[in-house]
């Protein structure tokens, strides 16, 4: 009798899950932190956003640290301590400390709209990490994230070395299914004592065996307990290059009528969103580098000539820095990554035959190199970089108010010195 009551309760919770349609911010290492998630929601039309990928063993370590501090009288100080990161001269942090920071840096609008992505290859470890994520959110926010996702598509060298992502799928599909089953069980058990139930999803790629093999795999994932599926419509070997296979995406969507499918790959603007959705009938689309390059490209109002939304690289970067000031990323490497994506086309113009990336007389070459200097660490310094860009380019149309006062007097040296001033103030 008790078991049937619990099953009915689970079904009721499951029925409340409403997966939004539209555009999803993809999980990105040093790219989908809280500042970027909030920016994408407010100015980029994102209906759902993913966290950066988190390793299962790091999440478990964070949870163990939290449990060890459960008896501390000042619980607020306990959570604040996880936001105090040690950053070395190269901008790197301890992976457990950075994971703790990412899990504790939240906002009222983020928690109910974030999917936390995990990676790993052990069913037991992934089950423990799933429970840990839920408990961390419940303790820190008194609520749970929208969902938890398993990375089954990462094609990078770290995934090959550690045996997760696309390499786990290629090595052992049965083990992959066991990982999902363990995560499903962890969610069901934890949520038997709370009033909300996060979704479980997986992000995969088109398998080497083709569409039919991918569909068979997707059906196994569904049977193991996922609520929706994200598919990068390229194979592992392609990484992020080449045209995505939207025909494969359409076939996968058609073969899974009871499973919402979100498609990913090469989507760079609002028009792409419309075209891919209409062509494949997918539930939604997922965007990575398109958001990094221009978050405004997914806002339909940007198409209007009278729109007051940012249209230049400086305006886009300034808008990101506004959010980075409110929600500081774990390291300045996050900010560098975002600004390099935003300024890439203007400072490294691939379509300009006269551009020489080794010509140091070209201000664009100097600026591109300056952007990754390890002494650029604070939001103030990166705003100085924007002012320097305006000055060097000679384009002073629609200069953001936050840097207007800096443009006339800024120099490479003054931007560097601003970091020393900030360090003294800290």
Written account of the structure:
Helices cover 50% and strands 10% of the residues. The longest helix is centred in the first third of the chain and has 19 residues, at 123-141. It is built from 19 helices and nine strands. It has an eight-stranded parallel β-barrel, surrounded by six helices. The protein is α/β, with parallel strands linked by helices and 426 residues long. Mean pLDDT is 89; it is low at 1-16 and 422-426. It has helices spanning 2-15, 34-43, 56-68, 75-81, 95-104, 123-141, 157-162, 166-171, 173-190, 211-224, 246-255, 270-280, 289-293, 313-326, 332-347, 363-370, 379-393, 401-404, 412-425, and strands at residues 22-25, 46-50, 54-55, 114-119, 147-151, 199-205, 228-232, 261-264, 284-287. Helix 2 (34-43) packs across helix 14 (313-326), helix 3 (56-68) crosses helix 6 and helix 17 (379-393) runs antiparallel to helix 19 (412-425). Strand 6 (199-205), helix 10 (211-224) and strand 7 (228-232) form a beta-alpha-beta unit. It is globular and about 60 Å long. The protein starts with a helix and ends with a helix.
Form type = globular
Helix content: 40-55%
**Rg to the nearest angstrom?**
22 Å
Mean pLDDT: 89
Sheet with the most strands: spatial strand order: 1-2-4-5-6-7-8-9
Unreliable runs, pLDDT <50, ≥5 residues?
1-16, 422-426
Order of helices and strands: HEHEEHHHEHEHHHEHEHEHEHHHHHHH
Distance between the termini: 60 Å
Largest sheet: 8 strands, parallel, barrel
Question: How many DSSP H or I helices?
Answer: 19
User: Structural class, please?
Assistant: alpha/beta
What percentage of the residues does DSSP assign to strands (E)? 5-15%
| Total strand segments | 9
